[in-house]
Input
Amino acid sequence: MLSPGILVVRFGSIGDILLATPLLRVIRQRYPHARLNVLTQRKYVPLVADSPHLDEVIGVAPKDPMLALGRRLRHARYTFLLDLEGTTRSRLLRMLVPGRWRTAPQYRLAKELLVRTKENHYPEDAPVAERFFDAARDLEIEPDGGPPEFFLNPEAEQHAAAWLERAQLGGQRPFVAFAPGASKATKRWPLDYWVTLIKRVVNTGADAVMVGGAPDGALATEIAARSSKRAVSAAGVLGLQATGAVLRRAAAVVTGHTAAMHMATAVSTPVVALAGPTVREFGYYPYNAVRATVLERDLPCRPCARDGGPECPLQHHFCMREITPDAAFAALARTLA
Output
């Protein structure tokens, strides 16, 4: 088949979509003349909108009617349909759009057993980016060993450059980006640790930029205010593309297990990642990063949840509190060296 039509479905989240980009790259290399489209949430379209590997990115909102979407996709007549999601929504889509669907393993039971028993029951030790390739088994492709990709458009580059200039950052001095937020409280490093680390980084002559989404804005602003006049927050101010452009300009990024970790990896910026309640068996560590250091504590209570939680079940939060600012600063120095 010379020119198949291929649809890749991944509604969210930021990290998962970026981890799917190695699959998109390899599909395009193997099938240069294929019609290759991605279906995702509308708010995540900027993550792949400028990819040269894609013909179209279809964005949907959570309340968009599935019946109308199904009719549109049936009319497109795809040869291969790849479900990287495995959720109720994607399963409904598979019912509405008959065709050659293949899925990627989610290993939900293995993840739950690892949380409950602290024993690894995963049948393979592959990262998520490579598990996605299971959905493309009919396409006869394999991972190419490359990292995720986040392609930035010129407008985003200009927006980021203008914002940095207004903030008087990134001119004469290098800057380090920090991502202090996280979707769950147990994945967040203590606020005082961020302040201590940023003060040390600024004392070396570098600037500091906080990044994150709108929910991280208040936390990032407080950390910046308590750290230094040369620490500024862009959290909740810049969109996905402009944030990616800021990360690309950073000397390095210090982040928890968040979207910023994958975004930085995808724009080839060195990463220092702070892993607390989650573990690498889940498959979400920096994938084939140019340079990455993961700091974590080997504790018998890890992992305590599949994706973090509202509070430490044992009320001590050692998984994050025992990663000290000194350890993070040393890792950052090694990463930059």
Remarks:
- Residues 154-166 form the longest helix (13 residues).
- The mean pLDDT is 94.
